[in-house]
Amino acid sequence: MRILVVEDSSVAARILKHMLTHQLECSIDVAPDLASAAALLAKHDYFVAICDLNLPDAPGGESVELVLGNQTPCIVLTGSLDAQQRRRLLQMGIVDYVYKENRYSYEYVVKLIATLARNRHTKVLVADDSALSRKFVRNLLELHLFEVIEAENGARALELLDAVSGIRLLIADYNMPGIDGFELILRAREKFSREEMAIIGLSNDTDETLTARFIKNGANDFLQKPFVHEEFHCRVSNTLESLEMVRQLWEQANLDYLTSVYNRRFFFNRFSQQVPVLGQQGASFSLAVLDIDFFKDVNDKHGHDVGDFVLTEFASRLKQSLGQHFTVARFGGEEFVVALKGLDGKRALALMEGFRERLAMEPFVFGELELRLTASIGIVALGHDSEETLDSLIKQADVALYQAKTNGRNRCVLAE
């Protein structure tokens, strides 16, 4: 990531360069005047430019015009700004403006650039039946480098939510024909939790209850039309920051800190209530408990760094082998468990046998060290019309695992 700083103050330029290079992976070019900036822009492509509004050879904001003319996102630094200048800059399409007041101003610039870098990989779906309104919102989002997808109505928005993976933010207008904003949000929340996707509602309706109704229906925030550029960007930024914080908290609570697969708590929360229901319905469900053979020897002979690598690599291979259809969790130490929803015992055995064979064939390589490791696996299938619980299934799988180890390890055993 290459950044251009157009600033005639050597002190300000030095502060920006220091903060940017220490907090972001980037290279910095500094231009003290308009001529130097023009030469650098002709020579390099920049991710973003930070421009002083008033330079000795460009007192009227010519540096901003130069940067935007080169299709480079521009953040404006200024000591003062009147209302007319502010409107002009926003109409020109700058990313944002920052007053040069104190150190926090420069910290804000660094944070803004880090946000722009993340936004390049953030998909936003805009659902609005007004083409003019969609274009306005799209332009604002693209100024901050979001990947924008448009839907002309609620039905199309639902189709796109199903078809396009990784949408992190839905911006939904209230007044749409057919499926309105409220119904769209309700149906979107059936598929995507607050950890997975954020929602902002829009409306030009003057009903004072809209904000509360949107949020009660599952939206994270609400914007009344018409809105100014800065309010929109602040709401979007704050909503996505909150989404990221919620996601991080969720991961800390539900993912294993070392291997990043689910933890024991998540596994029990998900399947404790599901298993009895699946049994009553006669649905196919199997469970496998896996243990890395002689893992203690790995730690004793090669140290915990190698042991941690083995656990992480084992979990990665297990997830890759099973794909996205089944749930993998680490129960502790070298023991893992897999919920095989939709598979009977025979199919579960075939799937886990395939993983076991591939694991034994491919060594674990840590630097110059090469380890050949195997796993023992116990499998149990949920019987039709059974009254089994998750605890009872795990106990049966543990018994099968013990049999696999007793019979020589590196094998799968299906509980009878």
UniProtKB/TrEMBL annotation:
EC number: 2.7.7.65
Gene3D superfamilies in the record: 3.30.70.270, 3.40.50.2300
Classification via SMART domains: GGDEF, REC
Domain GGDEF: from-to ranges: 283-416
Any GO BP: negative regulation of bacterial-type flagellum-dependent cell motility
TM regions (residue ranges): none
GO molecular function: diguanylate cyclase activity
Cofactor(s) listed in the protein's UniProt record: Mg(2+)
PROSITE patterns: GGDEF, RESPONSE_REGULATORY
One family name in Pfam for this protein: GGDEF
Reaction catalyzed: 2 GTP = 3',3'-c-di-GMP + 2 diphosphate
Residues bearing the modification 4-aspartylphosphate: 52, 173
GO CC term, one of those recorded: plasma membrane
Enzyme's top EC category: transferase
Coiled-coil intervals: none
Protein name, as recorded: diguanylate cyclase
Biological source species: Shewanella amazonensis (strain ATCC BAA-1098 / SB2B)
Lineage, uppermost ranks: Bacteria, Pseudomonadati, Pseudomonadota, Gammaproteobacteria, Alteromonadales
